[in-house]
Amino acid sequence: MSTHLRNGTIVLALLLCACARQVVKHEAPPAAPEPPRSAAAQQPTPPAEPPSAPAEPPRPPSEAPSPAAQSKPGRAGEQPGDPDDPRLLNALAASLREQGKLDAAESAVRRVLQRHPRDAGAYKNLALIEADRGRVRLAEIALANARKLDPTDPGIPNTLGILAMRNRDPVAARERFAEAVKLDPSYAPAWANLGAIALSYRDYAAAEQAYEKAVALDPGRYETHLGRAWALDGAKKPAEALAEYEKVLALKPQQEDALFGRALALKAGNQLAAAKAAFEQLVGLANGSRANDARAQLASIELRLAQAKPATEPARAEAGSAR
Fold it and tell me: Cα-Cα-Cα-Cα dihedral of 230, 231, 234, 237, to 10°?
């Protein structure tokens, strides 16, 4: 199976962070009920419209094949180090695309297709180039050609699902992601994308299950842990959510959305002193984007602490007089 698309990265944080900030903007004043992502909270309000895409298209490897790989026999008529070797040209196209040089990347892909019109990797590269240009239909056509040549690659329906989300068709997107995991149940990116769609529509049980599989398959991606934490919060499982936020922070310290979610989970568990310290940490972050949200939560905690004092002080006085 081709490594193109299959080994690409998915940037779930872009979607999930955007969803989180949309929720926070609609939170009530400090004295009101807890924010949506805490255990005692109301369920998060879904986005007004489906997210544009749960992830960026998977990226093919940007590095050229190793010397050992270059020395392996290629197609008929090719010599090791041949400048028209499709493996080298596809790697070059991927690298150029990563640099934003889309025209040069396309030229490299066209060179491959001129000599090898049945090269699936070239069509996959071409699809990603067209997707970067915003030409969704052309990207879909390129992927259709790739699919005929490499029908078992789960990265192809996964990318088709991402393109469907760009076309605001979440139903089709979900079908594509489901098709990807059917082709290969160990393909973590599609499980993560299924979780992102479920999370955006408050189907927390489905989101939790999908993210759980994605995390088990690829435990080193902090964005997937973050999505699972939010699904657990929505399902009102604050203790499990707190543990998941800790995993995010172990992978990416100072990740603001994880810090904020962890603080909310502590507050939901009535660990007010720890929650206060966590929100204060957010306020103190240089160039932090969640400082205002954290200040609002600090005001809420201060109010709760102030309301709790009158109830405890008479009890202490009464105990003292009894002595």
Answer: -90
Residues 4-20 pLDDT 10s: 344 343 433 344 334 43
Which of 79, 37, 85, 72 shows the shortest CA–CA distance to 207? Answer: 37
Q: pTM of the prediction?
A: 0.70
Q: Is 138 exposed, middle or buried (0-12, 13-18, 19+ CB in 10 A)?
A: middle
The tokens describing 245, both together, are: 């936020």
Q: What span, in angstroms and rounded, lies between the C-alpha atoms of 271 and 275?
A: 6
CA distance between the termini of the chain: 80
Q: Which residues contact 135 (CB under 8 A, 6 or more apart)?
A: none
Q: Is the pLDDT of residue 63 over 80?
A: no
**What does DSSP assign to residue 253?**
T
- Of residues 14, 3, 6, 5, the one with CA closest to residue 227: 14
Largest CA distance in the chain: 100
Task: Give the C-alpha separation, 184 to 10, whole Å.
Answer: 17
Tell me 72's DSSP state. S
pLDDT at 322 over 70: no
Q: Which two tokens stand for residue 5?
A: 């698309």
- The C-alpha atoms of residue 288 and residue 254 are separated, in whole angstroms, by 10
Per-residue pLDDT tens digits for 134-170? 999 999 999 999 999 999 999 999 999 999 999 899 9
Which pLDDT value is given to residue 94?
92
